[in-house]
Amino acid sequence: MNKLLFALGVSALSPIALAKPIITTSIKPVSMVVAAIAGDKAEIQQIVSSTASPHDFAMRPSDLKKILNADVVVWVGESLERFLEKPLENAGKENSSIEWLALEGMSLHNFAKEHHHDDEGEAEEGHHDDHEAHEDHDHEAHGDHDEHEGHHHDGVDPHVWLSPDNARVLAKAVTARLVSLDAANAEYYNGNLASFEKGLSAKDAEIRSALNKVNSVPYIVFHDGYSYFEQHYGLSHAGEITVSPERKPGAKKVAEIRHEIEEHNVQCVFSEPQFSPAIVKTLLDGTDVNTTPLDPLGAQVKMGTNAYLSFLDSLSGQFLSCLG
User: Are residues 150 and 19 part of one domain?
Assistant: First the structure.
């Protein structure tokens, strides 16, 4: 009987003893990097579904619960996920969250300095809130911060997960936080970080070699969100359909893109699976220009410790399939 009682006692206590850190993530690319470090020692709860876009996402009560239950929230930042600002503040999780854009060592791109083709009069029509008129803000490597309040990245391209170098920065920050939350598994997390960095270096070199064969082929993307990937691998971005994926381009912009396709001998116009491809079909009607979906969120990538590497592989494959 004593053994039975002891067994029941252990069984009752085991959920507490075996409780894993809960990491709430904003979008799938964040989850990919977190998963590389967390492995099976932490639980990941993602807010934005893998088939949705953070650009027009609306929070639900179940999403708020994920924030409240989290040991740490990992997100890109308010430039992309403004819907998270108030919930994080209300839950008292703002200062303890990991905001990717604000981490020390990040290399950030300013939209004002990027290549746009909007200066013929339609620039303001399609701009997203986070793209607007902030030319004077310097967004080169940021320091880490404890105070999130008032810390903004207006004008910065928030699609930082498309840079392998920035992924390394987040992986290190996640490792440090998991070690502090779960010191018993510190060796496991640090080992995962070492494996991730080694695998990332190899995958990065492999992709660079493959894309070097098509880096002079001009193309147009659906929305201007690929600058980190494009600059890292030296690709020939010739324009974008819109700077803001939730707003359709006007007639003037459509005519402008058609002109760019002819002038730059564009070989491919990419669509995105998160948005209707109808505008792309309209643009390419009567042309022999290639088109294929380019997925910046990796909706079809299987989650796991190698998910981020698979994501980079998938994205580079999408470029190659249309440009090669």
Answer: yes
